[in-house]
User: Fold TolC family protein from Gracilimonas sediminicola.
Amino acid sequence: MRYNQIVTSIITSFALALIILIPEVSHGQSLDEYLIIAGENNPTLKTEFTKYRASLEQVPQVTALPDPDLSFGYFISPIETRVGPQQSRIGLNQMFPWFGTLSAKGDVATELAKSQFEVFEEARNKLFFQVKQQWYKLYLLHQSIDILEENIDILQTFENLSLQRYETGQVSQVDVLRVQIEKEDLQVQLELLKDQLKTNEIAFNELLNQDKSSPVKVSDRLALTPFTVNEVELSQQILSRNPRLSKLDYQALSAQRSIDVAQKSGMPKFGVGFDYIFTDERTDMNPSGNGDDAFMVKLGVKIPLWRGKYQAQEKQAKLNYRSIQDQQQAVENSLKTDLEKALTDLKDAERRNKLYKDIQIRRARQAIDILLEEYTSSSADFEELLRLQQKLLKFQLAQEQSIADQNTAVAYLEYLSGSYNTTPEQMNVKN
Assistant:
């Protein structure tokens, strides 16, 4: 083979080895489809949603009146009255709490149910982020495997070239040994990446709650997820839509209603009832109303005389409310820190992608082309050629890493800002 043909072959191999980012996703199952599968199948998500639906059933329980008391009594020794002996008695009593107590308890339960829905929202948003993050890892592993395989092919071409020059006595056998060492090292790295790919596919399928051996399709090319960063608006959106904060907002409202419930619990309770007494007729005489049954209406008041427990109940509710306020501040501070870190990661990934794609890879390619041309016609430093090839491989892998990191950072910002939030009405919840 002539040297110019070898050069053409090597340059063609390099062109195939370069991973150039293009602004669309090619074949492969859509990431959105995987998100739908995860949302429908993930057992943790199902658990949180079931807890929400269960919490809704607390509302009719706490807003219902106490069960009425029905009693029956039988006189072992009948009580003699003017109109006859009383034989038995039946009574019904119904207690009523202070005005507004039941509605206040309903408000407490309703706000707690809303907070439970936010727990579900947080679990779903976190699941979607984990699915995206894992999918980007799989994409990176696939691309890294392709890059290593193509670089191994290039090193094989280098090995053939060095063997030809060694056989003609133009170079030392050291050139052949160097390229063989480098190729074997890449082969070991390649096998490790393939093992990691299998492990990460299992982890991805676990998130979707499907068979661990199910094939996972990823895109051949990954577009950079657009994200126009307005830090002020983004911060406001996080504080208003993040489920972790929304959950505490509803819990705070519930705690406020609990204070109202505690105050109303210390108020009197009223009772209404009646007794119906069965009376037999007298046989010794026939007075007016002989044998008429008696009917009695009763009104009662339960007086909260011992105030200690009601005062403690109100104090407990106030302390719970204060505790939730402290939690709100702590979560808000944590979210602000997470936002700054995510923005830093996003900017760093953007810089790295631009550096490797537009500068480092292009320069490394130019340097390799020059050295390769010199090596085919003279005794240029073959070690330097291999070193630059290693650099190019490093830059290619780093560029793909920056693409995955950038998309992961955007996914995390979406998670923080509640981009996938919904409402019970939108989910058509049937209670």
User: Anything to note?
Assistant: The longest helix spans residues 308-377.
